[in-house]
């Protein structure tokens, strides 16, 4: 039989979350999720929600087409189609997260870093994926079709001083 004092410090079989929770006297993530699942069971019985992933584009054709692309224009065509296909799902997730942030009027009085503010930030970031990917795609096209001009060659004539240096004077008479 194990000594009762030792049981408090026996971490065998516990994960890091359980050890930290025991140390600080807080619930683990698994505890919170288990309690919420238990308490939401009657609600979910009344409100039938899909129990699976949201329908989304199958990335296989996009990945295959990207592998076959040989030019930036071809890669852009694939990326553009994928972003167009993914946008409605990402927008739907963003819209839901905004609604969750504003649930029962909690957003406006919420402190920075609170769940409503974090949900609103997540909504924004879910759409920023599209913006960042579109920007990267356009920069790839710019590099192909509109590269930055090459630096101008120095004009013939008197040499210009380097920045921070005084101009050279000719021989003094």
Q: Overview of this structure, please?
A:
The longest helix has 31 residues, at 115-145. This protein has helices at residues 4-9, 16-24, 29-46, 59-68, 72-101, 115-145. It is elongated. The protein contains six helices and no strands.
Which terms would index this structure?
mainly alpha; 173 residues; disordered N terminus
Write the layout of secondary structure elements.
Blueprint: H1 4-9, H2 16-24, H3 29-46, H4 59-68, H5 72-101, H6 115-145
Brief rundown of the structure:
The protein is an all-alpha fold and 173 residues long. The protein is built from six helices and no strands.
Please estimate the helix content.
55-70%
State the distance separating the first and last CA atoms. Answer: 106 Å
Task: Supply the helix-strand structural class.
Answer: mainly alpha
The fraction of residues assigned to DSSP E strands is under 5%
The profile of the biggest β sheet is: none
């Amino acid at each position: 039989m194990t000594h009762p004092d030792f049981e408090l410090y026996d971490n065998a079989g516990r994960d890091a979350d359980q050890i930290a929770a025991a140390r600080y006297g807080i619930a683990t993530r698994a505890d919170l999720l288990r309690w919420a699942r238990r308490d939401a069971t009657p609600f979910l019985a009344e409100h039938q929600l899909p129990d699976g992933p949201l329908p989304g584009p199958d990335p296989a054709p996009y990945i295959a087409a990207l592998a076959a692309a040989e030019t930036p224009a071809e890669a852009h065509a694939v990326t553009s189609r994928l972003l167009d296909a993914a946008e409605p799902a990402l927008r739907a997730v963003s819209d839901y997260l905004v609604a969750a942030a504003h649930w029962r009027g909690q957003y406006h009085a919420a402190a920075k870093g609170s769940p409503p503010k974090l949900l609103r930030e997540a909504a924004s970031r879910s759409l920023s994926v599209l913006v960042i990917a579109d920007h990267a795609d356009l920069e790839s096209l710019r590099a192909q079709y509109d590269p930055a001009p090459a630096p101008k060659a120095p004009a013939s004539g008197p040499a210009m001083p380097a920045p921070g240096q005084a101009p050279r004077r000719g021989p003094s008479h």
